[in-house]
Design brief:
Radius of gyration: 15 Å
CATH architecture: 3-Layer(aba) Sandwich
Number of strands: 7
CATH superfamily: Gcn5-related N-acetyltransferase (GNAT)
Low-confidence stretches: none
Helix content: 10-25%
Shape: globular
Mean pLDDT: 97
Number of domains: 1
Structural class: alpha+beta
Length: 158
């Protein structure tokens, strides 16, 4: 299995990013406009799109704490805005390989800290993050429209 990461071309591929995001996350998918403010990547397996990931540079995830739902600048921190695999590619060990790439991306780009968040019920992603040294820094109840909490995690790079 050949795994590749290809930078998505915005605005040309925004419609496809949105389509894949909706297929992966359903009602939690991003609005189209968000794809213009992140650094998006395609996750490609054996030449086929298997999912997508996106980063935001020099920002800390705090939209769960602020009334304006914004994230604040924080030099040296990269926020993993999203990581998602299409259902057909789950359970094949790709999540671990994608996480390794995300951490290597952070190191290669000079970041000292990585933050991310996910649904509290996403045990698979929480477990993968913990395996790679991420630690839970907070849970925010009611973050998602259905009332589920978000789990915010960080990894401090050495």
């Amino acid at each position: 299995m050949v795994l590749e990461f290809r930078k998505a071309m915005v605005p040309d591929e925004v419609d496809e990013l949105r389509r894949v995001d909706v297929e992966i996350f359903g009602k939690d998918a991003f609005e189209e406009e968000l794809w213009f403010s992140v650094e998006p990547y395609w996750i490609v397996v054996d030449g086929r799109v298997a999912g997508c990931a996106a980063f935001v540079h020099d920002v800390d995830f705090e939209e769960d704490l602020r009334e304006d739902d914004e994230n604040v600048p924080r030099r040296g921190t990269v926020y993993i805005q999203t990581t998602g695999l299409l259902r057909a590619y789950r359970g094949r060990g790709l999540g671990r390989r994608v996480k390794e790439w995300e951490i290597e991306y952070a190191r290669r780009n000079g970041f000292r800290r990585v933050v991310t968040n996910c649904r509290e019920g996403n045990a698979a992603m929480i477990t993968i993050n913990e395996k790679y040294g991420f630690r839970v820094i907070r849970r925010t109840p009611g973050y998602y429209e259905d009332g589920e909490a978000t789990v915010v995690m960080e990894l401090v790079l050495e």
